From TrEMBL:
This is Putative CoA-substrate-specific enzyme activase. It holds the Pfam family BcrAD_BadFG. CDD domains: ASKHA_NBD_BcrAD_BadFG_HgdC_HadI. It comes from Rhodopseudomonas rhenobacensis. Keywords: Iron, Iron-sulfur, Metal-binding.
């Protein structure tokens, strides 16, 4: 897809000078974006048992799509649930928090974005960003309870005998959404079972749709509480795997009282896009800037083609490929960063 097809504002300010990749390794699904000077390529796979294998599969798919070779990729940034498991010996890389990447991805698509709701498989977040820079101003996350997350909706679909992709459309057919009052997932499940049994006893053919709608509204109320803590300002964007659930989108818009902004690509790729934009920035930045990008310094492989005597400016958190010996002062700096 051409960048001109997705960018709200042109000229687009985030094009890298060479291909870069963003990997978003989620708890349930993993996404990847490859950016070139004028194109964006995306791919998705279910997250496997081993995060590095999932990342490798994503990268291989992108390379097949584009006809590029690994050596053509200038930088990789990883984010999401499995980011800490990523490592590359042959490509410079860094890991960045998903909050930073979702903010940057939404901002890259629509610079007017101010508020983001991100609902993934294991958590949900409300993020407020600066529209001038795309940087995070404030964010809040759900607590350890799974209510309001993709995992809760997945379990609800099973209880109703539906596939996860069917849950949202079924909810849209509701005539009187059921009242699911429990905030705890365990008790909410009990309510769902009771409501379904009651509908079956009374031959209520619409019971399943009403329960499905009630589940979405219960989840949306949980997420709306997060949103209330950061404020709601337009443009409001919905990201994460649950962004494709039409039932959840409707419930959120009904409770918030305003629509989500339209986006030119599937917003499950927001985190991966933000990671790719960050990769482009890191690829063009001086080496000393890599470790401090967005305030998230993580283990990174520096480019292998820099002679050792030119690496005197290595920042804390930057790692050379294993085949290159580290200067003693870089080792000390990395140790201090880990502390």
């Amino acid at each position: 897809m051409k960048i001109s097809d997705i960018a709200v504002d042109l000229p687009w300010r985030f094009a890298p000078d060479r291909p870069v990749v963003g990997l978003d390794i989620g708890s349930r699904g993993s996404k990847a974006v490859l950016l070139t000077t004028d194109e964006i390529h995306t791919t998705f796979v279910a997250t496997g048992l081993y995060m590095q294998e999932t990342a490798d599969e994503l990268l291989a798919r992108l390379l097949r799509q584009t006809g590029l070779a690994r050596q053509d990729v200038k930088f990789v940034v990883g984010t999401g649930y499995g980011r800490i498991s990523l490592a590359y010996d042959d490509i410079p890389y860094q890991v960045v928090t998903e909050i930073t990447c979702h903010a940057l991805g939404a901002h890259a698509l629509n610079p007017r974005t101010r508020t983001i709701i991100d609902i993934g498989g294991q958590d949900s977040k409300a993020i407020k960003i600066d529209p001038a820079t795309g940087k995070v101003v404030q964010f809040v996350m759900n607590d350890k309870c799974a209510a309001g997350t993709g995992r809760f909706l997945e379990k609800a679909a099973v209880l109703l005998g539906l596939g996860l992709d069917e849950l949202g459309p079924v909810a849209l057919a509701a005539t009187a959404p059921a009242q699911i009052s429990s905030q705890c997932v365990v008790f909410a499940e009990s309510e769902m079972i009771s409501l379904r049994a009651r509908g079956e006893r009374h031959g209520d053919g619409s019971a399943r749709a009403n329960i499905a709608a009630g589940i979405h509204y219960a989840s949306a109320r949980r997420v709306k509480t997060l949103l209330g803590r950061v404020g709601t300002e337009p443009d409001l964007v919905f990201t994460g795997g649950v962004a494709n659930n039409v039932g959840m989108r409707k419930a959120m818009e009904d409770l918030i009282g305003r629509p989500f902004a339209a986006t030119p690509i599937d917003m499950i790729y927001a985190g991966a896009l933000g990671a790719a934009v960050q990769a482009g920035r890191l690829a063009s930045a001086k080496p000393a800037a890599h470790g401090a990008a967005n305030g998230h310094a993580h283990p990174t492989h520096a480019a292998a083609d820099h002679p050792l005597h030119h690496r005197h400016d290595l920042p804390a958190g930057i790692r050379l490929p294993e085949r290159v010996a580290k200067p003693a002062h870089a080792v000390r700096a990395a140790a201090q960063a880990d502390d």
